[in-house]
Structure formats: C-alpha cells, structure tokens
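Database export, one record per block. Field names are fixed; values are copied verbatim from the stored entry.
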Amino acid sequence: IDTGSTHCVLDESIADFFKDNINYVGENSLHGIEGNEVSTKQGILNLKINGKDYQQDFCFMPLMGGFASIKKESGIEIHGILGNNFLIANKWIIDYGKFVVVESE
C-alpha cells in the first residue's frame, strides 16, 4: 500500500501470471519510481484479498529496478503498489496506531 501513489501499479513481468484476470483498456503515462516518465499499459484487474473480490484499474510497468534496493536491504520482493485510488474506492482506512488496514462500513 502506498498512500502517496495516485495509481495502482503492477510489475509488467507479473502481469503474465494474472493474464486471465486482466482486461486491458488502453495506455497511460506515469512518472516511474525513479522519476522518469513511462508509458504503461492499463487494465482492470480482478483480484481477491482476504476472500473478497475487487476490480481495480492498474498500470503495468517495469518495477524491479526501482525496488531492487528494497529487496537487497530487506529480502522483501515488491511486485506492485495498491495506490490511494484503491483505498478511496474501497473505503479502506489505515490505522497507523495499530498498524492495520480496515474496510469502513
């Protein structure tokens, strides 16, 4: 989850794994993790989180280069970002005191 990101983004290499769950709708232009402008494919991805179905538009772009330092330092491999648009559309609330994300009612 990245509250500073206005879009949901998934590494383009992972998109093949979800190919049956993506409906491509066009292209978009974003500023990448390294600050450069990148042309991306855009599509609606059907996903399931904690047993609940969601549909969300994602941009598909190369992310592994930008996240390489995180993997090197922590061993955590990041494949994508759930951006603010997902949080707002699905009324998710981040409780920073408890370090949890909850869906508002």
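Remark 1: Strands lie at 8-11, 22-31, 37-49, 52-61, 80-81, 92-95, 100-103.
Remark 2: Helices lie at 12-15, 64-74, 84-89.
End of record.
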